UniProtKB/TrEMBL annotation:
Species in which this protein is naturally found: Merdimonas faecis
Phylogenetic lineage: Bacteria, Bacillati, Bacillota, Clostridia, Lachnospirales
GO biological process, one term: trehalose catabolic process
Domain of life, source organism: Bacteria
UniProt name for this protein: Alpha,alpha-phosphotrehalase
Nucleotide-binding in keyword set: no
CDD domains recorded: AmyAc_SI_OligoGlu_DGase (cd11333)
NCBIfam families: PRK10933.1, trehalose_treC
Subcellular location: Cytoplasm
Record-annotated Glycosyl hydrolase family 13 catalytic domain positions: 11-412
GO CC term, one of those recorded: cytoplasm
E.C. number: 3.2.1.93
Length: 550
């Protein structure tokens, strides 16, 4: 059985990773060409975001065909070669499965629109409350109504995301069997990991107006969600102890995640939750400009760490992915303390209880690109909200400022391989612009620099492999109300790990609840440390990992 508690997963957004054929788009052969880089970093799995046939309205999360690879990414032979070559390097592949919805160009939906009653029941069609009024007031996560009118039926179909992404009807057992067939197909190709996109939205509850919010309380962690996940587990990946799974859980609750990621193995190996990445939102609204709430960030991280451990459930721990801004731009300092803050943020996550995920370029300290014109954006959500923000009365300048902070395109700019043309990503014009700072933030430069962010990530991954306490220890929050320091202790058998992080660009004194004389510093982002008994003088964005055995 695979030990995912000591594993590290590297996420690749193929479109932006490496272009092997000079068309401006990353591809599967490009991933194969860079496998030695991932091996050098030390990752155990590669999570590939969707490369299936798709009209790309939502960058591949609108799947037209679950069984075939979009030609812009390559061929099935290319994927098989990638799997073989990764295996030679001790790396397994994790595929991203989008099962809450399909593309409106999927064969099932086209048959539904053609009036085939069997396939119409694969989706969620409802009558309006009255002419011209959708069934409910639910809002799409990409803006606007979550319902689209179909004239020939005089009905609406549900799309919690883009209008081109109709939601599947998981209450229909035929749908669930078809989904199981897809998972079995890819298991047959030797795939050893699955990430399930917004999977806690697949079971809808009551279809009625939400007088308190946008409707999410009626479709999140729905009434049959655990039944459907257990059924999927039993029929597919649960039959292979070598397969790991992770569920992306949108607006979920701790209580549900105890069950999703329980050690009993009936549902999933681990879960992604996003509450800690809403601390610079206003409520659930992300399209705002507010400073992040550090104490709230600590509280959420500590709460999930502590309670998931108490209930024997497992977290995926992360800052970045294809839907999130670059963390060093979000919570760090991209100017004076770029390197120190990027290393500190990595320390926070990689020493926690859970399986760490690294998003491509995070290990280099890649930053938000600072786009200043709507023509530079490609993300459907960002383009929609640029319009919506102005309709709400914001100026174009304010709308641009908000997109520069929160747009998903902040993480989708091409991987920065070198200081050459287009950051070494492609010889052609990339599908989205490369960040100008590729001149000094790039893999080629950082691989040569022993003090680089890249080498620091290597050291963090090595700690997880070397010290059992990192993989298996419990979690103890420390000094939760401290205004500048995020600190915690891990305990395992006769080992202790103390992780101390200054989250800000000013020196600060922190006092431990025990003497530190028996601890050894096994990792830090500074060369010299100021420790005296219980007191530590922390430099700007300093991170310390202290270890001792009883």
């Amino acid at each position: 059985m695979v030990d995912f508690k000591k594993s590290v997963i590297y996420q690749i957004y193929p479109k932006s990773f490496y272009d092997s054929d000079g068309d401006g788009l990353g591809d599967l052969k490009g991933v194969t060409e860079k496998l030695d880089y991932i091996r050098q970093l030390g990752a155990d799995y590669i999570w590939l975001t969707p490369f299936f046939v798709s009209p790309q309205k939502d960058n591949g999360y609108d799947v037209e065909d679950y069984y075939h690879i979009d030609p812009r990414y390559g061929t099935m032979e290319d994927l098989e070669e990638l799997s073989r070559e990764a295996g030679k390097r001790g790396i397994s592949l994790m595929l991203d499965m989008v099962f809450n919805h399909t593309s409106d160009r999927h064969e099932w939906f086209r048959k539904a629109l053609a009036g085939n009653p069997e396939y119409k029941d694969f989706y969620i069609f409802k009558k309006g409350k009255k002419p011209g009024v959708p069934p409910t007031n639910w809002e799409s996560k990409f803006g606007g109504s979550a319902w689209e009118y179909v004239e020939q039926f005089d009905e609406y179909y549900l799309h919690l995301f883009d209008v081109s992404q109709p939601d599947l009807n998981w209450d229909n057992p035929k749908v669930r069997r078809r989904i199981q067939d897809v998972v079995k197909f890819w298991m047959g190709k030797g795939i050893k990991g699955f990430r399930f996109d917004v999977v806690n939205l697949i079971s809808k509850g009551e279809f009625r107006d939400d007088l308190e919010g946008d409707g999410r309380r009626f479709y999140t962690d729905g009434p049959n969600i655990h039944k459907y996940l257990q059924e999927l587990n039993e029929a597919t990946f649960g039959t292979d102890a070598e397969i790991i799974t992770v569920g992306e859980m949108s607006s979920t609750s701790l209580e549900n995640c105890y069950r999703y990621a329980s050690e009993d193995g009936k549902e999933l190996s681990m879960v992604f939750s996003f509450h800690h990445l809403k601390v610079d939102f206003m409520g659930n609204e992300k399209w705002v400009m507010v400073p992040f709430d550090f104490c709230k960030l600590k509280h959420i991280l500590f709460e999930w760490q502590t309670h998931m451990a108490e209930h024997h459930a497992w977290n995926a721990v992360f800052w970045c992915n294809h839907d999130q801004p670059r963390v060093v731009s979000r919570f760090g300092d991209t100017k004076e303390y770029w390197k120190e803050s990027a290393k500190m943020l990595a320390t926070v996550i990689h020493c926690m209880r859970g399986t760490p995920y690294i998003y491509q370029g995070e290990e280099l300290g890649m930053t938000n690109p600072g786009f200043h014109d709507i023509s530079q954006y490609r993300d459907v959500e960002s383009i929609n909200h640029f319009r919506i923000l102005q309709e709400k009365g914001l100026t174009r300048e304010n709308a641009y400022q908000i997109l520069a902070i929160h747009s998903r395109d902040n993480s989708r700019t091409p991987m920065q391989w070198s200081d050459q043309k287009n950051g070494g990503f492609s010889q052609a014009e990339p599908w989205i612009e490369v960040n100008d700072n590729c001149a000094y933030i790039n893999a080629e430069t950082e691989e040569k620099d022993e003090d680089s962010i890249f080498h620091y990530y290597q050291k963090l991954i090595t700690l997880r492999k070397k010290y059992d306490i990192v993989g298996y220890g419990d979690f103890e929050a420390l000094d939760e109300m401290h205004p500048s320091v995020l600190a915690y202790r891990r305990n395992y058998r006769d080992q202790k790990l103390l992780v101390i992080n200054n989250f800000y660009g000013k020196e600060v004194t922190w006092e431990a609840d025990e003497s530190l004389k028996d601890y050894t510093c096994i990792l830090s982002n500074y060369e010299h440390h100021m420790m005296d008994g219980k007191r530590i003088r922390l430099k700007p964005y300093e991170a310390l990992v202290l270890y001792r055995e009883a």
